[in-house]
Structure formats: C-alpha cells, structure tokens
Write a structure and sequence with these properties.
Structural class: mainly beta
Number of strands: 25
Number of helices: 2
CATH architecture of the largest domain: Sandwich
CATH topology of the largest domain: Immunoglobulin-like
Shape: globular
Distance between the termini: 26 Å
Length: 363
Amino acid sequence: MSFASRSILTVILAAVLLCVAAMPPSTVTAQETPTAAVNFSVSGTVSSGTAGTTLPANLTLTLNLVTPDSSGALKVQTQTAPLASDSTYHFENVTAAVGSSVFVTVNYLGATQGSLIAQLQAGQTSLDLPITLYAPTSEPSVVTLLRAQYILDFLPGNLMQVLATYYYSVSGDRFFISRDRDAQGEPISVQIPLPVGAQSIAFTNNVNNRYAVGGDAIAPVILDSRPILPQQSHELVFSYQIPYDKGAPIDQDYPFATQMIEVLIPNDAGVKLTGDFNANPNLTINAQRPYTQYNLKAPLAAGSRLIYTLDGIPPVQVATPARAGTRVIPETNFVPLILALIVLIVVIALIATSLLRPRRKQS
C-alpha cells in the first residue's frame, strides 16, 4: 500500500471514530423489582345515612383494586359479592400488590357510592371498610366549594401551567348529583367552568372515567361524575394551560357558593396578580422556592364571576438578546454533518486510489 493510500485510510478511520464519539451513549434499562403480593380479606357493614330510607336486600357490592404499573398507568381489578341479610359483605382470599388502593362501591339510587379508599400495607391480612349509603338531592344550594387552589408556573412558548385543586362539601344527609348528563349519558355532580382559552387539560386520577370535559374549545368545562357525599371530602385535582404573553386576564365563573380562592405564584417568575386579593408569603408549597399566595378577600355567592389580571414577564419567556457585534450561532446537530463528511471522504479515497493504481502498459 502506498503512502497516499495509507494517509487516506487514516483520515477515514479518524472520521469514523469522531462520528462514534458524537453519538449518544447507549442506555441499559435496570430490571424492575417485582412488587410483593398480599393475600387478605375485605369486609364491612352497609348502613343508610339518610333519614327515612331503608336499604334494599338485593344490593351487589364491587371490590376495586387499583395498582399502578411500572409506566405509571393504573391497572384496575374488580370482583363482586352480594349484601348479606345482616347488612354486611365479605370478600375472601383477595390478592393484590402492596401499595394498591382498595375500596368497595355499590350502585345505589342512580349513583355509585362506596367506602373510603385504603392503601394496602405489607403484612396486612384484613380490611374493614364500612359503607354509608345516601339518598340523592339535586338542589345546588346544598353544595359549597370550600377552597379552590391554583398553583401557577410559566413555560417557554408563552404558556402558563395551572395545577388546580377543588374541595367541595355538601350539607344535610343526602348526596348531591345534578340533573345534568354528559355526552355519554352519565350523571354529573359538579361542573367547573375553566378560564377562557384553557387547553391541554389533564387529570391526576381518572379511574373509571370519573371526569369528562364539556363546554367548547374556547370555554371548556370540567364535569365530575362522582356524587358529593355528606361528611366526606370531595376533591378534584387537574391541570391545564393558558396562553400567557406578558400578562393574562383570568375570567372564570363559579356556579356554587365559594368560601376561599387561593392563587400561588412563584416569586422567581416575576409575575404579580391584580385584583380583590390579599398577598402573603408562602413557604409550605416548596421550601426551596418561595411563592406569594393571593387569597380572595371575600367569599363568592353561587353563580359569581371572578376576574383578575396577571402581569409580568417570566424569565423563561424572555429571549436572551445578542450583544452588539456578536454573531449568534444556532444550535446544530453535527452528527448528520459528520456522516456526510465520511461519505465525501470515502468518495475521495476511491478516486485517489483509482488515480494511484499503476496502469498496465499497452503492448
């Protein structure tokens, strides 16, 4: 091999090594440790919580086992059992993974009601989950929104992320379910109109398709199918995004009487709220990231409309200006360029080899 040929091959080898070094390293997925399973029993007593009502004898109860898999998706398993003559139920030889959510439900008077949710612990052999069943009411005056909390964050692309948590209660000894139905004909308890322009709506836990989205693309509405039961916490958690460009007006309706509204904004966002709110520091949400908590000064009557304004330019939404006389070099993926360079070098090598090959003399 000639010196010229060896030089060309050396260049090709160097280019190949450079390309390999530029490629991302391979990743090795660690094997998951299987979650321990527990064999246990579930039982409880079923009683009526509404004065003057008697439970029927033909009730069928459903045991629900909810377990998250390795991807975070929820796996739901169910089995049924009848209500015994002494108003008790029993599920024997139940198997589920440690950490699974366990609860019992029953369809009674047009709504799914049930027990509290228990978290399965290692070594647990039995669960006692009593159930109190209530008759319905569709009178909205019994419903109170105890607290609506909005935690704001700001994203590149002129977007504001909102994590919303709503806490409802109902007065009296009847559960609340409205006369309204969603697109699938399912009953609706509360409806939450979102601010105009809300998008990318997501739910933290939508087991059994509890939530639906109604309204329209401009003014969506959260629909909750779970009845509000007396003496139980009724919580909704969801998130959405709103376009935000140097500020945003927030315009939202509140169908039910509302006692408290909180808006929490991280101080490093540089965003302020203007409206009928009191501002106080908050370190409980994130001790490493101070927030300002804005509390609505007075409760809202049912059917109220609340408007306030957010102003300020978050750092993540401000482009870094180029200094005078400085050339801005865009971010580039160099791997395709290296591959193209290798192809070009190989072509040059083939041509050079052809030129350097000694030609046979013609006789």
